[in-house]
Design goal:
alpha+beta; two-stranded antiparallel sheet; 8 strands; binds zinc ion
Amino acid sequence: MQISITNLKGESATLRIKKELPVDYGDRGLTEEKLVSPLKLDVTVTNTEEGYSVQGSVQTKVELECTRCLIPFVYDLSAEFSDEYLPKLNRAETEDDRFFSEQAPYFQGDQLDITELINESLILAIPMKLICSTDCTGLCSHCGQNLNQNSCQCIVDTVDPRLAALTDLLKKE
Ligand SMILES: [Zn+2]
Ligand SMILES: [Zn+2]
């Protein structure tokens, strides 16, 4: 995703872009996750004189695997991002430049490439533990049956071991 900054001359010049991007919007898409709907993008670019500040939000749908039942499901993913793009200097890099280049994105010419910024925000917005629904019963730990679809014949021993000991004791009496 490239943004042209040719019309953003002068401090505080602002540009707002609302756009829908196709699922395969960049060759560096979400490598592991499968996007299943276009990306709704709303981004504002402001000329800060030192560079260009980019702020925006993105919404899409992604296919993810439930961590309880392991069945893929569609998750509504939305993320916000912001960063400041600085001009790439036309001189030999110094140590300081290298340090800062790891902190801030650079641009050259009259285009900002925000593909990476979008990708990073989406990846960070995916929760670590995802379940397909709050009442997902998951898989049986004995036979692996998906308990959302069918029950199984396993007898799960839910008796508290302390109670079991008491029961044994009472039996002996
Ligand atoms: Zn599930
Ligand atoms: Zn079972």
